[in-house]
User: Fold these one by one.
Assistant:
Number 1:
Amino acid sequence: MADKHSSGNKSKDFSCSLSGPNIYTPNGSIKEELEDQNLWPRSLARKWIGMLFMGTCLLYCARMTMPICAVSMAATFNWSKIDSGLVLGGFFWGYCFTQILGGHVSDKVGGERVLVISAASWAVITASTPLLSYLGSHTLAVMTVARFLMGLLQGVFFPSLASLCSQRVVEGERGFLMSTMHSASNLGTLLAGGMGSLMLDRYGWESMFYSTGFLAGLWALIVWQCFLKGSSDVTPKQMKTRKDSQWGLSRTRWLSLFKKPPVWAMVITHMCMCSTSYTILSWLPTYFKESFPHASGGVYNIIPWLIAIPSALGGGYVSDFLINQGYNVASVRKIMQFFAMGLSSMFIMALSGSISFHSAVIFISAAVGVSSFTSGGVSVNVQDLTPSCAGALYGFMNMMGALMGLVLVSVSGYLIEVTMSWATVFSLITLVNVTGLGIFIIFGDARRVDLEIYSQDSVL
């Protein structure tokens, strides 16, 4: 028999299902439930998920534009490898700075508007990059600053999405929403690589920036006109409730929050997951090129990410299905994370031996595919624990994950250079994954902790 939800109410008691029939709240009033929690109705939720899917896809298309065009731009402007690395690295430094701020603002004013404003801004920067590159003789500095600004503006996206998910989507549907966005990021990476190669050959590197920036700007305009113009994120009653119960970024409350084992367990696990994903993404092409020099790059650069798209959707569906069937939310999160970090590590370690090219593609595709199950695990756990400040806390998690990713990518490069062995890197990835998974299994939970801390602070 399924375990009961930790809060005592099954998720299927909530209304607003995205795929199933109307499910009434315990008192039988869907309308009151929607007003109290400010949730999307089912029809509106479907429209928003479609738009957010396209927005996430375009986000990654824009993010990958510079890496795809870097070789052509380096030839045009006579950049060295160090120069190219400086331009590409500017994005990640900017990306770390606005994670917490973007999530905090989204918690306060609503994630929809933050997403649209940021998208319009980075769309302008993307489309104007070719023009900026020909202004004066300091092209390297200008491009580095442009990438830094791109990172700043895109850094608010996923924290805002986490905030939006906690405010607008019921618990039993959050895994599918986040997994859908995860699959959109893989699709964006694939489209940028496939279409980018064609556009580079036919129309030059400038066309990639123009087209991506235009489409992103068009997306922001459509969302504004069709969803946000003339509307208010919250009613006066909901605004009053949000002001009364929502957290500020006070040091006391943050310290109280991080004294809770489920919170710091979630943060550490997310850091481990992000850093290993960044490492695989960064070094995977090099591994295949050195281990199988005659293999087609189109195979190992495309197949793993094609597998990840349906895998992410499937993982999100399974997690939500289990929750809606009444299984304990914390148990579901841990099961999904076991697949994302535990099972994927088994496939990664299989790459250490002497294997054929086809076996390597199968193993890495399986590893990337099951790692996407984190969308139903730790990636959505922040909305279980702290929905009142989910955006700000997710921003902190993402910032720490990006910083740890930079460190792990660098350490992996050092190990490859010194040991001349990929097995060492795969062992390091496995160690980080197992450490994060163990912490999450032991200390992870899904019960709200923010209201408890807020009540204690109010009494004091």
Number 2:
Amino acid sequence: MWLHQAPKDYNTTRSQDVYRRFVEIGRVAFVRFGPDEGKLCTVVDIVDQNRALIDGPNIRRKAISFKFLHLTGIVITIAHGCGTSAVKKAWEKEGVEEKWCQSTWYKKLQMKATRRQLSDFDRFKLMKVKQRRSWLIKMEMGRLKKAQKK
């Protein structure tokens, strides 16, 4: 084996282990920055290494930087560069909104939004509930340790 020769399975395992979501036609993405922040869109075409053409039911068709997008695990079946009406039909057919609402990512975003809107008194009540829960867990663990010693 030469010094600079890679193992036989080097190329096959590297890409599979690291990346699971690729930029592809039909990939649903979450817009993280800009005027459309917080909206879902789908990749219709890839402009160059830094930008993609996006479209969706709640967003106008435009080119956007990959830095502004977060790729989701949802992919819809659409043709390369298809029109807005075709994207909307595929969006509804695949049930993207339902899949998104069931995802853990969406639930975490909703929880953050809810917590952002809490008042001081609501945060205090939440703190007290957490303290009570922690106390109950400690008490039950103590009971289980005593029972295990006997």
Number 3:
Amino acid sequence: MEVSIRRLHFFSLITLLSFPRHLHASPEYSRPPPRPIIFTSHTRSESDPQQVHISLVGVDHVRVSWITSHKHTKSTVEYGKSPGTYEASATGDHTSYHYFFYSSGEIHHVVIGPLEPSTTYYYRCGGSGPESSFRTPPSDLPIEFVIAGDLGQTEWTASTLSHVGARDYDVFLLPGDLSYADTHQQLWDSFGRLVEPYASRRPWMVTEGNHEIETFPIVYPHGFRAYNARWRMPYEQSGSESNLYYSFNVAGAHILMLGSYTDFDADSDQYKWLEADLAKVNRTTTPWIFALLHAPWYNSNEAHQGEGESMRKAMEELLYKARVDAVFAGHVHAYERFTRVFDNTADPCGPVYITVGDGGNREGLALKFEKQKPSISVYREASFGHGRLRVYNQTHAHWSWHRNNDSDSFEADRVWLQNIYASTTSCTEPTPQSQRDEL
């Protein structure tokens, strides 16, 4: 799809005027300069769907979300397995919201299904407009995830999405900071139009970041007004009471989408939900567990140092005892991969921690790492890019991080992950402190 864009002039002052280079970079790579913010215009009629994106609901349903300027467009989706032939239809609901002088369009959400796995469906929203298509994920392994945080809507974002779309995948996972609207609600619309060519074709599963909060004293004290209205996730299906944290199963993986910006201490609803959710996971049928959150628990970058520490202290032991395989975070605008860790110590039974807050945001890269690299940090680099997690079978998965170049992406880091629960009998019980100290 051809996306019409123009520069968003009133945000041009935000773009960095000077951009240090070569700091903590791979020696063979010279970073191109930063790229400006872009604004994606609305070029369709008032009744035509725009900002179309899909998300998973249960194992065989998909939620289709879109926006219309026209207030009376029906919240219906027609769909089928052949172009132009719609064998089924479903009706959902719609909402809208106000933020000071801004009024959103009509935000439609329709759940369709049951759907067959690994199947292409053609669909039309609201009975008009262009036909779209998506492919459902497989019901079993292998499966491939794309993971990228802190997207925003700069020319780096467009580059990242172009690299993502150049290779096939099944599900897009986003650990927070979507539009960088920061109360400028028109940027939510621009972001939805920018990502539509990708988010309408593969499920996008997201969790919130700090740029989604958008509180304003007295008037909007609770935050997440736009995020919750536009990006509805399947939290009810996992027993969560909040769109800010939830879980879902796909193929042989259980995915935890945790909320860094809602309560997480031991008395909180999120903590109690997470404890109950992990207790239900059957590792025989669902061997892999991955977690996503925004503020990283492990970080050797000077940016946002320690901001995830209170959440780590509250929840890390839950993930460790459940033998979570990997934890992905955003927030820090750089890439960093840690070894398996528990309580700041290398531990063969802990998760691998990976920061991928480098999708393309307007604030630039976090270029300054701590001079003394921690022993648990394996690879770190301040570059824009995206990650790919391909889970091959019950025991092995492959992670790769693809740095953005001007035109092509480059696989700068890669590692094979072994499922610690399925393949290591010593990890069926928590590792004693004495054994961890010997690593």
